[in-house]
Amino acid sequence: MKIPLILFSTAILVGYLMTQPVQSQTRPLKFDFDSIEIGTAEYPQGPTGCTVVYFPNGAKGAVDIRGGAAAVRESSSLASNNTWGTADAVVLAGGSTYGLEAADGVVHSLMKMRSNPTHFSSIPAVPAAIVYDFAKRENALYPDKALGEKAFAARKKNVITIGRAGGGANVTVGKYFGREWSELSGQGAAFGEWKGIKIFVVTVVNALGNIVNEKGEIIAGSKDPKTGVRISVAEKLKMNLEANLDSEVPNGNTTITAVITNAKLSRNDLERVAAMSHTNMGSKIQPFHTPSDGDSLFAFTTDEVDLPKGMDVSDVGVLAGDLLNQAILGIFE
Q1: Could you tell me the residue ranges of all domains in the chain?
Q2: Whole-model pTM?
Q3: Could you say which of 48, 203, 254, 257 is catalytic?
Q4: Which of 134, 229, 263, 286 has its CA 20 to 30 A from that of 292?
């Protein structure tokens, strides 16, 4: 009787493992982009957190907002018709709109670093975007001014913590049919360099939609709480409609992203890079940009290197989009 019992136990274990999300552990990702510094900080008892990308020499920026429930700070300073449009840092945080306060901590840190300047060109500009991360916790902790200061103080060159860290400390995906169908997510990042053009991306994925791999397979999200089987939102929605079942789509979802390059680009070019790369993320997050998401993507350039011969802004958009796909999938490795 021992052999059948072992085989039966093994079958149960295999079945169990097949239903589990492929979830990464928090780990460092190293890259090579000396013109930016990154810091993350968390309140583990939340959990919640924030991620700060600092530009020591400033950066020209743009923002692409696609979700129907976005909350963004200083988006007007990145508009193409704004005559200034230079940022000192960008913040990606949890805590819903409360979490925008984390950017105040970065502003305060920069103010102290610069000895309390009042000249127009020295006053810090720190755009920010947030995700709703209060689900499945019973407290109201959020990334406040103090946590923003802590993240800024923790900044380093050429390394970022990915997984359930920073703004991705308490995020999930695949909630279209209720939060009980969701799976854990986190913060992803990726880097590439081509002919001296560097592109770094970071994204906090708290999407309503599922995560789909290169084969079109769902690797996270819409996991049936009873069977453990994942299902496409479109297919489940069709089934619900045929059965006259309502889909009560939960609010509080968002993917927030920053794309940073050293290529010399105009703000109009940055808007195009933002639009292209944001759109490309839809191949991995399905559905994307719903009324219940607050999807926002910042694009920045440190304006250091001319595009080499044979390379244009479209190429930057394509490469940034490819890196974002890597960043999203890397969360679940």
Answers
A1: 25-330
A2: 0.92
A3: 254
A4: 229
